[in-house]
Write a structure and sequence with these properties.
Elements (H helix, E strand, L loop, with lengths): L7 H8 L31 H16 L3 H12 L5 H10 L2 H8 L5 H9 L3 E3 L2 E2 L12 E4 L7 H10 L8 E4 L4 E4 L14 H9 L1
Antiparallel strand pairs: 1-2, 1-3, 3-5, 4-5
Length: 203
Amino acid sequence: MGRLLGPKHHICRRLGERVCTSAKCPMMRRSYPPGVHGPKGYGRITEYGTQLREKQKVKYTYGIMEKQFRRYYNKALSQTGNTAELFLQHLERRLDNIVYRLGLARSRQEARQITTHGWILVNNKRVNIPSYEVKMGDVIALKEGAGKSARWQAIEQYNSTRTPIGWLAFDNKSLSGKVMSLPTKDDFPQNMNMTLVVEYYSR
């Protein structure tokens, strides 16, 4: 499985918007593109450029390579309903995203790592595939003993400032969460315009 490598903060500045979860993202201080000509700003952007930038933003936010990202689009396109909403629903239902949303990891990158390392159980069975799509009623938990690790102590401290996700329920005692419903339009990140992404692939 491919991974997105390279300077992630560089990507944030290139896109003109934060796609990482770091509180120290340079975008907070230097909100212009990287490089010697960066301070001149982003300049005018075409309709195609706007669509491309939105596609790149969503793709980098979820940490997905182009081939797999397009596969989610094709899957949404083949279903009945709003393609943009179905597209984002598939992204939100990825196991690594669920682990992050539940607060079992501080970032999607960390969620992907602990998933591939076998820390995550789905309905009491170990699942080490970050792209696994959860279903309504699924229970996601840390494996036994993982809650005593130094990493979890740091994650727990980080979670004290996070806002709960409406379509997920989390039990801090058992370190497990449940998918109460599938995400709807109201649950999606407000900074993502999936209609632009669909328009990009529809060209």
